[in-house]
Structures are given as C-alpha cells and as structure tokens.
Sequence to fold (463 residues):
Amino acid sequence: MRRLRALIGTSILAAAALTVSGATVAVAAPADSQFTGTLADGTTWIADMPAQWNGIVLLYSHGFGDLTAADAPDPTTQAALLARGYALAGSSYDPNGSLWALDNAVQDQFATLRAVESTVLPGKPRQVLAFGTSMGGLISALEAQDGAGLINGALTTCGIVAGGINLNNYQLAGEYALAQLLLPGQQVQLVRFANAGQALATAGLLGQAAAQAQQTAAGRARLALAMAFLNVPPWSAGMSSPAPAGDPAAQEAAQYQVEFAGAFTALDFIEFARPYIDQAAGGSATWTKGLNFRALLRRSPYRREVTALYRSSGLRLRTDLATLTGNANITADPAAVRSLERTSVPSGRLAVPELDLHTISDQLVPVQQENYYARQVREAGSGYLLRQDFVASVGHCNFSPAELVAGVMAISQRVTVGHWGDVADPASLNQVAASLNLGPARFADYYPGPLTGVVRSHRLDRF
Fold:
C-alpha cells in the first residue's frame, strides 16, 4: 500500500479510455508526477517521474547558496529531460549545517536515491547518472569516485573539481595580493570572518581599492597580477570572444569587468562564501605562509600579460613579488585542512565514466580547474573514464538547456555502449544540441591552461 500511495503521489492525470465488460469508461492515465520526502537527518528530497519513463534516473546535485531540494538546474532543462523520459531526483542536503554542504551531501544524495528507488520508481532503473552544478559539480565528481554499484556515470557541470582547498587558496592568494599592493600598511581582514557581513565588508574595501587602481597604469599592472592569482578570465559580458593574448591592456580591462563589475561582484561572492566553507571545515583551511609568489606567477597563463603591464608602468615586478612572498604569514587550522581534504577534495580515482562541461569564461569557478582535475584523474589511473568539453560562453554555469541535455545524452550513451567513441567530441555534442531546439549549441575545441595557486601537498608544517 505504501508503494501504491507513493506511485500515485501528486500525479497530474490525463484522460484516457478503457473498455470494461464491453462498456467504454473514462479513466485517468498518469502524466508527469512529483514526489517529496524527508530523510532521517532532516534533508528533504524531490523527485519527478515522467509519464513515459525511459529507465534512467538523474540524481541531481544543486549548487551553493540554498538548501532547498532541487532535481534540475532550471525549469526549462527540467521540462526537456522529463519530456525525454528521464526520472529526476535530488535533495536539499542537511538543512542544519553549512551552505557548503560537503560534510553530508554525498551521503544525502545516495540516501535520496535509495528512497526514490524504494518508493517512487516502478522498477529497477537501467541507469543512474549523477548530474551536478557548481558546488553540486564537485558533489557529482565525488559521487563518480564513490558511487560504484550505485550510479553508472556522472555529468559534472561548472564543477569545483579542483576541490575546496585549492578554491580557498588561489582565491586568498589573489585577495592577499590586492590588500598588500593596493592597500599597503592597512590591516585588511582576509580570513576567519565571524559572519558573511564581515566578509562582504572586506570585499567592499578591496573593490574600492581596485576601482581606484584601475585609473592608473601602475594600478592596472598590480590588478593584473592579483587577477592572475585569482585565475580571472579575460572575457567579459558583451565581448564576442576573449581579449587576445597579444593585447595585455585589453586582457586586463576584460578581467577587471569580470571580477569587479556589477552590483554584486565576483569578489563579493567569493568573500561571502568563505565563512560557510570555514563553518563546514570547523576553522580556516586557507593559508599564504610558505607560498612563493614568483613561482605561482611563473605557472600562470597570464604571466606575459602581467610582465608586459609592469614593464610599461615602470614598476618592478620582481619587487612586488618579493613583497608578497616576504609578508605571506597567514596560517590555516590543521584540523580544518584535514576536514576539507576529507570532504571536499576529489581523489581523481573514478569508479564510473564522467563527462565534465565548463564555460570558457567562468568568473566563479575558473575553467582552469578542469586542467588541474584532468591531471589528478590521469595520475590516479582513471583518465580513460574522463572526458571534458568546453562551451564558448561567458558566465558561471551559463549553459543553454540544449547543451545540458546534450551532455546528459552523451554520458548516457557512454554508459550504454561502454566506450566514448566520438560521443563527447565538440562536433557531436553541437549536432545533438542543435537538434533539440532548446537554445544555442556552443561546444568548442578548447583546452584551458594550468590553474594558478594550486596546492598539491597539504604539509601541516605550513599552517
């Protein structure tokens, strides 16, 4: 009876006809149906069943900023997936914790899958695919390594695949450079914020300093250096393509717009999120102590831009880099680093195939994270399971529904046939996406440069 009630759920019913003992009577035929439930830790879950199920479940992981259950990234994509027969499910994650819900998100997602399989689905699914956005993309990457026997594949979109420790550290490196070079001698709080209000106050202070610096050649050179550590892309809204690498001034101007333009800037969001990461980790898992800023810049894709702007401004780059290295004394809490490494850092050891999609200009999760992640996966021996594709688009997670549905179809096909073939090639994805009439198809032949400011060894003596 419990299963019957769950299957009835909140169904929207469509009219049909049935012949009984020679008489034709009107009956109800099931259309798309929605179900909800609650897990033992208070996590809520939601599931949508299509009228005609194709046997595939998409286990969707939402991004940072809200602890509300979601089973798709947007209503249009949700409707398109249901129309193609996919069952959708997803959870809120534990509402009693941090917005950075990595302490429990993977467990809550797998518990949601068990609840949906036992109370909603009419039979055993032939495929279960993880699907995640932003922070949820990190969750789906973790599911891809921990989900043997539970999921068959994963689609990670705009994911924080370099992990929470690297996210913290390259962001702090850039903010530290802003404070040191634009506000010398001032005490600027960069870590251990008591609340989001304190963090946003720091973002405001740094943003004001950046606006003033943008007015001079010396200021623009120093901004370019800080934005190199932040991995800011040189492609802002309104531009048809990235600023050319041979035009350092245009690159810096575009990066400035990406990082500092708007009522709620990218820097505002970065600072706003940090207290929640600290809350989840139980302390600050971010540091500058021991960093060599000259070595960090040497590995940056924007090194030539920075060098050119410093040269034309008359400043000595070597002097500023020495200042940054010499004053780098921010330490982390070792227990917090261990906590974040345990919950929020992918190992790269994949148990199932994974397809990653990333926009080329992502102001919050730089596309260079995919470069770092690919190396992790290769070193773990799982390179044959990973494919990465890039969308010529500006903005964090700025995919069209056509691109997302094409990604779902591609990872499902990979699971079905057992090999990649050309299913994840940009041309194939564009062909499928264009046929869906759900928006633009912008997959491009592209591969990002290295991620600046990464930490590959979390040595406790640095903290």
